[in-house]
Design a protein that fits this description.
This is Oxygen-dependent coproporphyrinogen-III oxidase, mitochondrial. It comes from Seriola lalandi dorsalis. The radius of gyration is 22 Å and the shape is globular. It has 457 residues and is an alpha+beta fold. The chain has a 7-stranded antiparallel sheet with strand order 6-7-8-9-10-11-14. A 3-stranded antiparallel sheet has the order 2-3-4, with no helix packed on it. Helix 5 runs parallel beside helix 9, helix 5 runs parallel beside helix 10 and helix 7 runs antiparallel to helix 10. Helix content is 35%, strand content 23%. The protein is built from 14 helices and 14 strands. The protein folds into 2 domains: 11-77, no CATH class; 92-451, Coproporphyrinogen III oxidase, aerobic (oxygen-dependent coproporphyrinogen oxidase, 3-Layer(aba) Sandwich), CATH 3.40.1500. It has helices spanning 11-25, 92-97, 128-132, 143-148, 153-176, 220-228, 294-309, 315-326, 351-362, 365-375, 383-402, 405-412, 418-421, 442-451, and strands spanning 34-39, 46-47, 52-57, 60-65, 72-77, 181-186, 191-199, 204-217, 241-253, 260-271, 277-288, 328-329, 334-335, 339-346.
Length: 457
């Protein structure tokens, strides 16, 4: 049986390992900010493949061959306020749910253009096992299966969502000092997920980053909903095999001057009676501040716009409007936050081009949010500001439980994991009867923006 050696006393092996780690870590930040720390510390391991072991601890990962006491390696990235680079409750439920924001479905067939491959795109060619070392947990799908179908979209997307989860979790751990609880779960109907949650930290009251990869047969309710969106689905013997996967995150900070952020990127694939497959992508990133800060709003939206503009100049304005329409609390007459981008049913111009767009969006979650966190890390807080934060969190809960189709669908779908679906809810919130802020206050300014969405870029 072949042996894969990651770290040994052999100088050549150490050099090769170091080069691989550096190449991986450069994705996260400036090369000057990348540090490789070597130690001989041991920790419990999980066997992935014969001859290899997985070691994980906080912000680093170590590797060893056959359990021998070889050298170990850990990568740690220090992030500065504005020097960062490319990381609700959507399990597969949001991917299944999706939705059409208005009667005229936004068609992308004539909009996207191919983005020339660059060094970032060539990452996909790296060995699957090498990339898996940096994840928060082994992938949901067996690594051997991923290696065997490395060119298929199911593998490409699962690797992307696992990397997005790991990148964002480590960025949040770096600023908070806490550690995410990694919770693997299985769905008896097929598949499972990895929920990473950090509660009551120094900076974040609740931070959750979920990955799910599920498969099976669509329920009639799910199929009916998709047909209502214009999908023509032809099952065999009444069955529609599907696979859905996605990464979803909601972050609720303690300081009311640090906004709540949500993102979700997902992929759905259905096999029809004749063996053909329908596929589409969906997702987006949006910001929910308690107080308006125009510089923060510009930074957030501009980062998303730059990612969208790589693919087509109309992506950002169209998906920004879609976001404002979707995250709308109808009974309050206000949006949930200041928006971002949102899209669904993206199935053109080609599968690879659609995936490259989703990848560009997923890699903005760290640079669009972490600079804002660092900027307000030490802002002073009054009791009135905390009280207003609690009221705004109540609105967040209202949207998720009353309007969010992913949450509602998940709660009604057999086999869904309720803990992961309700991860999006804050630890604390408040509802005051007929609450209305006084005119001329910062709270009133925030409410005015929510009732009349603005263009920030």
């Amino acid at each position: 049986m072949a042996t894969i050696v990651f770290c040994t006393a052999n100088k050549m092996a150490q050099t090769t390992t170091r080069q691989c780690l550096i190449a991986h870590l450069k994705r996260f930040g400036n090369a000057r900010e990348t540090h490789l720390l070597f130690s001989s510390t041991h920790s419990p391991s999980v066997t992935l493949l014969p001859g290899t072991r997985w070691f994980s601890r906080a912000t680093g990962v170590r590797f060893m061959s056959h359990g021998n006491a070889g050298r170990s390696a850990a990568g740690r990235i220090r992030r500065g306020a504005l020097a960062l680079s490319g990381a609700a409750a959507v399990t597969a439920a949001a991917a299944v749910a999706g939705f059409l924001a208005n009667a005229n479905h936004f068609q992308c067939a004539d909009m996207a253009k191919r983005v020339p491959p660059d060094a970032e795109e060539k990452e996909q060619e790296r060995d699957i096992l090498e990339r898996c070392r940096g994840f928060m947990s082994p992938p949901v799908t067996d690594i051997g299966v991923l290696q065997g179908r490395r060119e298929e979209m199911l593998t490409k997307m699962e690797m992307l969502i696992m990397e997005t989860q790991a990148d964002f979790c480590r960025a949040l751990q770096e600023v908070d000092g806490g550690v995410f609880k990694v919770d693997r779960w299985e769905r008896k109907e097929g598949g499972g997920g990895i929920s990473c949650v950090m509660q009551d930290g120094k900076v974040f009251e609740k931070a959750g980053v979920n990955v799910s990869v599920v498969f099976g047969n669509l329920t009639e309710g799910a199929a009916k909903q998709m047909r209502s969106r214009g999908k023509v689905l032809k099952g065999k013997d009444g069955k529609l095999p599907f696979c859905a996967m996605g990464v979803s995150s909601v972050i609720h900070p303690k300081n009311p001057h640090i906004p709540t952020v949500h993102f979700n990127y997902r992929y759905f694939e259905i096999e029809e009676e004749d063996g053909t497959k329908q596929w589409w992508f969906g997702g987006g990133t949006d910001l929910t501040p308690v107080y308006i800060n125009k510089e923060d709003a510009f930074h957030f939206h501009n980062t998303l716009k730059e990612a969208c503009d790589k693919h087509h100049p109309q992506y950002y304005p169209n998906f920004k409007k879609w976001c404002d329409r979707y995250f709308y609390i109808g009974h309050r007459g206000e949006t949930r936050g200041i928006g971002g981008i949102f899209f669904d049913d993206l199935d053109s111009p080609t599968q690879e081009e659609a995936f490259n767009f989703v990848k560009s969006c997923a890699r903005t979650v760290v640079p669009c949010y972490l600079p804002i966190v660092y900027k307000h890390l030490n802002d002073s807080v009054t009791d009135d500001e905390k009280a207003w934060q609690q009221v705004r969190r109540g609105r967040y809960v209202e949207f998720n439980l009353v309007y969010d189709r992913g949450v509602k669908f998940g709660l009604a779908t057999p086999g869904s994991r309720i803990e992961s679906i309700l991860m999006s809810l804050p630890l604390t919130a408040r509802w005051e009867y007929m609450h209305e802020p006084a005119k001329g206050t910062l709270e009133a300014e925030m409410l005015e923006v929510l009732r009349n969405p603005k263009e920030w870029v």
